[in-house]
Amino acid sequence: MSIQLSIRLSAIAGLTRGAKRLADIGTDHGYLPIFLAQQESLEYAVAMDVNRGPLLRAQEHIRRQHLEAKITTRLSDGAQKLQPGEADCVVIAGMGGPLTIKILSEGRAQLAKTDVFVLQPQSEIERVRRFLHAEGLVITAEDMVKDDGKFYPMMRAERVKNPKTPPWEDYEYCFGRFLIRQKNPALQEFLRKEEKTCLEILESLQGRDGEKIAGRRKELTEKLQMIEKAAAFFFPCNPHAKSL
Questions:
Q1: Phi-psi category of residue 155: left, alpha or beta, with phi > 0 → left and psi -120 to 50 → alpha
Q2: pLDDT digits (tens, 9 = 90+) for 199-238
């Protein structure tokens, strides 16, 4: 019986296309590697987690699907127990941005021969995008979905020889170049939500003074400017919209 993935996990699975040997760091219930292992294209998967409880649940789900020969489970802090070259695609999903960066940084030796990274950070997405580019990894695809009322941006980054991708604009690091240019519908809804939130906070700050208030007002104004630049792509009649 095939595993049915959530909207979020299904989108993540779509970004792993072409993977033959996959490592899922922070696998939780193991649903993603199980689903992918049921596809003929995936030869081998390692389901990894720092906590024994989730790993035991993953092991049980793997047994129920009779996939013990195809999926190995491993107790590991980040990528520490992954062998160099063992996975051609690594998934890190459902963690905060700082933890995602920490796993990639501390696992440089283990991940040096990995070509594809599929990341779905839960926070500080801009920081993750900038980190990838600083590491010489090229973001080649992005997706964003709304699942159970929450927005989930995700990306595929690849290790390429002599990367020539120019730096992104600030608003692209914030909201995602591919999401913007491909007019992702979830991003469009997210931008509207963020704009509404920023405007409401700015309104609540009216008539208030102080250094912290001024700093907050400046931060919100700058964010609104980035939202406007990203939103321009969704409205081609807008005179400020950029050509795709």
A1: beta
A2: 999 999 998 989 999 999 999 999 999 999 999 999 765 5
